[in-house]
Structures are given as structure tokens and as C-alpha cells.
């Protein structure tokens, strides 16, 4: 059984946390980033660029969660 400190120091968990944080930041700044790129004052929720940035952030969060959940070190044969 892994202690919490050992679990958090695994490289897959660290990489997963980084992906999740980057994805969260991308989701949070998606609207402002789209408004800056489009040089507009209002944003339509059906804007393809906005949706693309938002879904990219959600995908990064999902990849991060998968990286955290995968026990890569324990899957190889140790004989």
C-alpha cells in the first residue's frame, strides 16, 4: 500500500497534476482568450474558436486524470 507522500511523488501523478492544472487554466481563460483573438467586446457561446479552446482544456483535464489513475510503475513484470 502506497503512503500518500509516495503516491504524490510518482512521476505519473506529477505529470497528471500538471496536465490537469494547465487544462483548468485554459478553461478559465477561454473566454478572454477568444475575445482577444477576435478583437470583439461580446462573445457568442456558439463561437467555434471558443468551443475549441474550451474543449481543449477539458481534454487536458481528462488526460491529467487518466495519468493520475494509471499505475504505470506497477504494470511491468518484476521477477
Number of domains: 1
User: Helix segment count?
Assistant: 3
- The low-pLDDT segments are none
Give the amount of beta strand, in percent: under 5%
What structural class do helix, strand and pairing data support? mainly alpha
- Written as H for each helix and E for each strand, in order along the chain, the element string is HHH
In total, the number of strands is 0
N-C termini distance: 19 Å
Sketch the major β-sheet: none
Shape: elongated
Rg, Cα atoms, Å: 18 Å
Q: Round the mean pLDDT to the nearest integer and report it.
A: 87
Helix content: 55-70%
Q: What do these coordinates show?
A:
The protein has 79 residues and is an all-alpha fold. It has one domain. It is 70% helix and 0% strand. The chain is built from three helices and no strands. Helix 2 packs antiparallel against helix 3. The radius of gyration is 18 Å and the shape is elongated. 10% of the residues are buried. The model has no long low-confidence stretch (mean pLDDT 87).
Write the layout of secondary structure elements.
Elements: H1 4-8, H2 11-38, H3 48-69
Helix pairs in contact: 2-3
Amino acid at each position: 500500500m502506497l503512503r500518500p507522500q509516495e503516491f504524490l511523488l510518482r512521476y505519473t501523478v506529477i505529470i497528471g497534476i500538471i496536465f490537469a492544472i494547465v487544462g483548468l487554466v485554459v478553461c478559465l481563460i477561454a473566454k478572454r482568450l477568444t475575445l482577444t483573438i477576435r478583437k470583439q467586446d461580446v462573445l457568442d457561446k456558439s463561437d467555434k474558436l471558443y468551443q475549441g479552446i474550451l474543449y481543449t482544456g477539458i481534454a487536458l483535464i481528462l488526460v491529467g486524470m487518466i495519468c493520475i489513475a494509471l499505475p504505470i510503475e506497477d504494470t511491468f513484470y518484476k521477477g
